[in-house]
Amino acid sequence: MNISSIILRRHNHIKNTKLVGRLFYTAVEEKIEIPKRIPRGPTDILRALESTLQRDPTAAHYKYHDDPYLMPKSNTSKRTYAMAEESGRKAAHWVRSENPELFNHKECDPAIDLFFPKQVYDENSEVTEKDLKDVIGKNQVSDAIVINKILTTKGIEVSPETKQSLLELLCYNNSEDTLDEEYIEERWFKQSSRLRERQRKTWKDGNIAEEIFISIDNPTADAYSAIIQGMAKYFQVDRANQLYEEALQKGFVLNADAYNSLIRVANFFKEGYDLRWAYINNILLSMNQAEVKPNLRTLNALLWALSTMGNSKNIKDLTLKTLRQFKDLGIEPCLGSWYYVLITFCKERGPKSNILGNILTQIEGKEFSIQDLADTNFFVTAMDVAKNHLNNIVLGKRVHNLLLKGNNYNLIGDSYKESVYYRHYFGLVLMNTSIDEFMEQFYYKMVPNIYVPEPAVMEDVLKQVEALGATEYLPKLWSDIVIFDQNLREKLINIVLNIMVDNPAKESSELAERFFNIAWDIYTTISEQNLEKINRLSFTGDMLGSIMTVILRYGDFEKACTIMNDLSKSHTTILGVPKFDALSLFVDHCIKNKSPTRAIVCIQYAADSGFPEAVSLGAKLNQHLTLDEIHLNKLSNIIDLKLQ
Amino acid sequence: MNVLIKNIYNPFKTQCQIVRNLHVSPIYLKTQAGRYRITPKKDFPLTYEMANPPHMIASRKAWNSWNTSNVQGGLRSSETAVEDHFIRKFMIGTWHGLFVSEIIIKRQHNIIRIAGLISRTASSRKMYFLIGYTEELLSIWLQCPVKLELQTVADKKDVIFKYI
């Protein structure tokens, strides 16, 4: 503004000119608005930079070392490498815990607790209530138990607040230590979700949490809430209910989460759906009377209970009603809630429901953070519904876009869920797009760094290649099968061989050579297996016949002969027989190479295997080659050569 | 020099004698550090790093330790030197017989990155164990994040630049 006014004064003589005047006037009128300061955290810049990065599908996950030798290529190596690194970390922690006196130097400033050896508590340690508070804050269950024991034996009184938080810690963890938060790989590969789904009583009766609860003279409502939640979480449902009744009789107001935990285990109390719903309504009513405001976890508990109540239309209506009512209360459902809705509406044997599309329009383009453990089930279930329930690729792609949005990928769960998710996504795309699009847009992009197809998925891909005759992808697929350690799976080998036999490559083309290489590769891997291996894959006659056919088509007669030798030598041990076409082709090539001895071996084998057409083979041989006395004798021994 | 200083600080002696010692023979300016002697059979393998003498640092080769503790106002210069030596010893001992290059230590802010070339004589699973172990133990010891940046070479001969 200042500069423009100075210029205006200096160029006063041209000020009258309309154009210039207008130009400067607009500049004068322009107002600079200084935006309000946005308070930033110390890592905000890093986060902003990070948000510009996308997962690079051409590189392995960043937890692996960026080196060709150290990059994992199959599912097993992904798992072993990550777990090996973690066990190395554990070894380092072990070294420190064995020699804690060596690690007491202080380099870092300010001091960071994690770098120092862990405090070990035993019966003789000098402890105060502050120590107890510290270990509770750090979620160290066994240490908390030890300290509490020392405090009680020494007769040191602990404040009621600390006692309450100790009780909550023990109830939450079932008085057991949990896996250290630092060991992320172990958590990622543990498949804990599958264990958690099995609902059985794991609460340890008479454990320290109960002891502490009893030792409290006049347990408060909070103490009741904590122990009820703990028991319900580990399925000690009867006692939980008993304590709940007790608390009601005493006129306590429990917290919302205690009510939620009881709703969650309603299916243990009441068998019939109507009874169960009545029971839940009772709990809700007493919540209402106690003026406890329900929260998101109440919604999720209700939706979960509804999802266990069968398939009737009434249940679906109730689900929608619940969602509406909570929305009126100002509680937005999280991904976990949508997961429960999905499993309520899209049952395996139920009618089809398009609710996934409606859900997606609600949540598309949003970023989520975890609010409920069930959140991690959403994506895998949504993809399952998109594939198996609706078989709708548009929905599948929408789900995938949502997953890639922001930090939503954190909600994929663990390695098991991730691979199930991609299994469904791959299957969905494979069934609904052309094989070219599938390979270009999905397979080349995601395999092997993001996803390694399991043998079953690989089988589907091969079947699709077989159905469409897209043989140009076969070499790539076979090399992947080898890398992923699936090259000794009989099903996959059979499909690959069938594709090659049914779709002969043009002679002396590059593809023919590749087919030959694949066939010979199959032959060598099977025959070079370790003899002591338990589940050895053995040749079948059909397999050898197919391999021989492909090799003969490429024109390598010598290698075909070794296979023929194998066939005739281990006639009794090899299961099944090759197709007659393969044998006939072999005889043709013997004629071409003027090698009657080998042809006779083949005819002998054909006759032994009980092919009635062996006679015609002999005739063909006799017709095309002039056989000497010995050969003729042999031939007539095998078959009845009256055709001469 | 010593004598001079002594004399200055000894006021009684200063008056009677001032001695200055002079070298009269020419200085033999032979520098030996960081250089390798030629062997009679000329079969001693050198990596690129070894083949270049120290005065080539910054022109043909770079430093093995990267940090700012020796610039003006730099912190912890002696500690850094000792720690770097400790890290090198630790790496050589832990990755026994695997390193085929010098160990490069790079410090940025509070992070230490350790780089180098290793041969593929151990299985990749074992290497991952060692990576996890080294990173964790060194971070516990040095109390800052430590990261390894390793590259593997298929053959030890790949890193040999020349024989002398």
TrEMBL record, chain A:
GO terms for molecular function: ribosomal small subunit binding; rRNA binding. GO terms for cellular component: mitochondrion; ribonucleoprotein complex; ribosome. Gene3D superfamilies: Tetratricopeptide repeat domain. PPR repeats lie at residues 220-254. One of its GO terms (biological process) is regulation of translation. Keywords: Mitochondrion, Repeat, Ribonucleoprotein, Ribosomal protein, RNA-binding, rRNA-binding, Transit peptide, Translation regulation. Signal peptide: none annotated. It holds the Pfam family Rib_mS39_PPR. The keyword RNA-binding applies. It is found in: Mitochondrion. Belongs to the mitochondrion-specific ribosomal protein mS39 family. This is Small ribosomal subunit protein mS39. It comes from Rhynchophorus ferrugineus.
TrEMBL record, chain B:
The keyword Zinc-finger does not apply. Coiled coil: none annotated. It is found in: Mitochondrion. InterPro entries: Ribosomal_uS3m. Keywords: Mitochondrion, Ribonucleoprotein, Ribosomal protein, Transit peptide. One of its GO terms (biological process) is translation. GO terms for cellular component: mitochondrion; ribonucleoprotein complex; ribosome. Transmembrane segments: none annotated. The keyword Signal does not apply. Belongs to the universal ribosomal protein uS3 family. This is 28S ribosomal protein S24, mitochondrial.
